[in-house]
Amino acid sequence: MRGQVFYEKDRPRFAPDWIQTFPVPRRAGGPHIQYIRINDLATLVWCANAASLELHPFLHRAPHIQQPTSVVFDLDPGEGADIRTCAQVAFLLKDVLARVALQSFAKLSGSKGIQVYVPLNTGVAYAATQPFARALAQLLAQEHPKLIVARMAKSERTQKVFIDWSQNSDFQTTVGVYSLRAKRDRPFVSMPVAWDELERALQTRNTEGLCFEPEAALARLSEIGDLFAPVQALEQALPQSRRRAPVAPASAPLPLRLSPAQSAPPFSPESPSFAGA
Predict the structure, then answer these.
(1) What interhelical angle do 83-98 and 195-204 show, nearest 10?
(2) Do residues 121 and 229 make contact, with C-beta atoms less than 8 angstroms apart?
(3) Dihedral sign, CA of 12, 167, 107, 162?
(4) 107 in helix, strand or coil?
(5) Out of 18, 31, 214, 252, which residue is the most buried by the measure of CB atoms under 10 Å away?
(6) Closest listed residue to residue 264, CA positions, set 136, 98, 91
(7) What pLDDT sits at residue 206?
């Protein structure tokens, strides 16, 4: 079915009583938004039956709505750029993050871009993560002006990739891992990918392996497991100079000092993992 749509954030009136919610203040004031907490399989199935094709969670978990569990960089290709261009930028992000001892993980958006996640899981606030993300995006845009843009204006994105750092806000959401995308008649899946898979796509110029329909996504998950699990469990700290940085206006440049290149500590598969909304 095609036509006009709208996105309902509040728990609908027809939801059963056992559906749990958490109140989130509205930016414009008024009654709090009662967001559904998808903390179990039954709630997830109910949401699917209610035609919630796409799931876009916050970066935080209730009740700690000022503490993101990750930093995310949303790589959005402009006209003339594509997912391979996004992969180039993803590797630039990965390299600069490794220089400040931060591991990162890639996820296909299920549409046309890539997201790079930096797991934190340490109780840091958005007041530190957003300026860090913006500073890094601006740094890469300065170093690679023909490839990257860090400003919102779509007119500047032709043949470039926009690094959307603004996702790191308490009111922003990012498409969830393994969510379907309502972009085509046949939906693709927002799927985590290994860095060597992105590297092969760049080297071979073949991006067919970067698109997953539902059946292929399920088969892949069964075969190789959850590549996104470290994002849920790995604890990392932002560079100390950015931990308490205030959120500055978007027009103000934020320099980011990088230490010499160094290897990030490896993720241990024995680290505890957990799930939640």
Answers:
(1) 130
(2) no
(3) positive
(4) strand
(5) 214
(6) 98
(7) 80
- Classify residue 215 by burial, with Cβ atoms within 10 Å: 0-12, 13-18, 19+: exposed
User: Peptide bond preceding 253: is omega within 30 degrees of 0, i.e. cis?
Assistant: no
Instruction: Indicate the pLDDT class of residue 257, thresholds 50, 70 and 90.
Output: low
- Tell me the two tokens of residue 40: 């179990």
How many CB atoms within 10 Å of residue 171? 11
Q: From CA 140, how far away is CA 161, in angstroms rounded?
A: 11
| DSSP string of 193-249, one letter each residue | E-HHHHHHHHHHT--GGG---HHHHHHHHHHH--TTHHHHH------GGGTT-----
89-119 confidence digits (pLDDT tens): 999 999 999 999 999 999 999 988 999 999 9
| 23, containing H or E segment | strand 21-24
Contact 239, 100 (CB under 8 A): yes
| Contact by Cβ (8 Å): 189, 213 | yes
Q: Any alpha helices (H) in the chain, and if so which ranges?
A: 41-49, 83-98, 126-143, 195-204, 214-224, 229-233
